[in-house]
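## retry 2 of 3
previous attempt timed out at serialization; input unchanged, resubmitting
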Amino acid sequence: MTISISSPTFYELLYEETVNSFQHPDPDDKLDVMYNFPKLLGQGYCREINLRAGLELLIGDLRLCDRIIFEDPEKECCISYHFHFSGTHEDKHTSTGGGQYIFHGSGLAPQIKSQCYHQQPYLEIEFSVQPELLRSFIGDSEGELPQELQHLIRESDSQIYHRFGTATLPMQRVAQQILHCPYRGITKRVYLEGKVLELMGMLLAQEVEIHDGKSNPQPLQPDVVDRIHHAREIILQRLDNPPSLNELARLVGLNECTLKRGFRLCFGTTVFDYLRKYKLEQARQLLEAGEMKITEIAHAMGYTSRSPFAAAFRKQFGMNPKEYQKQRKIPFSYRKNSVYLSNQSSASLSFTVFC
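## retry succeeded, writing output
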């Protein structure tokens, strides 16, 4: 079943869901608010952290009940970076999956339809920056941006600049640090603002390189990109018994060298490092859910025993699975079983922040 939904209807559902149960995951920060995802659409949360005037951080951890088509009207946008840890979002221009991002400037965003699939979890972060704040950081004494970055700020009636890309390993590390921020209160806010600005610096450096002709944002042919994404789907479907590189290349119709090069360009890492990180991220979410024993999670992720799983988890997240489970066990309502739509063929709802 497919659900079609518009922005006004979605936000009406979102606020109805949370109006009597606003949650502050950090009790020392009232500008850090968590919204429950509408039960009609799935389960999960949308977390909004206002770091300072003109700078906002958003985190989404969602599980959709069904395939959803989001309908966004034409609207004015600020500068934004949207990174997917997992989950795929598609529209007529791009297909953004795990390890990938969309970066766009300010201006007018066109009316668009996009779709998200329910077979996979969505874990994402997004930050948005108002043009005047960016001017204050990198503009001259009159707020004028360098020539190579002026395309990022456009008039409200001019269509936005946007770029699709694969996050580099430094970008992915910073995104993970944002997701697993170890601080609270004012310390958390300073830490997160620093990480957001660090990511912005990496993006601006890429923009300068592209402007100067030193970087090609899309070095692969579209057909090869499609095959690389197919390869990713195959390994994620076979978590417990992934194919060899040679077999994977044969399955998607590429030679092994092109597969390895293309995978690194598309996802910023090797095939098996991507698979390792994906499995550990799934394990992390299972630990937070608290519904499976650590040994069961290890076996579900393809580890032969608890010991190698614990070693891999400690290397990725800096602590043992048991320690992590004790620290992160938070009784949010979205950890309950999924609530599925009953006998509804469609609704009319758009959600661009987290999909």
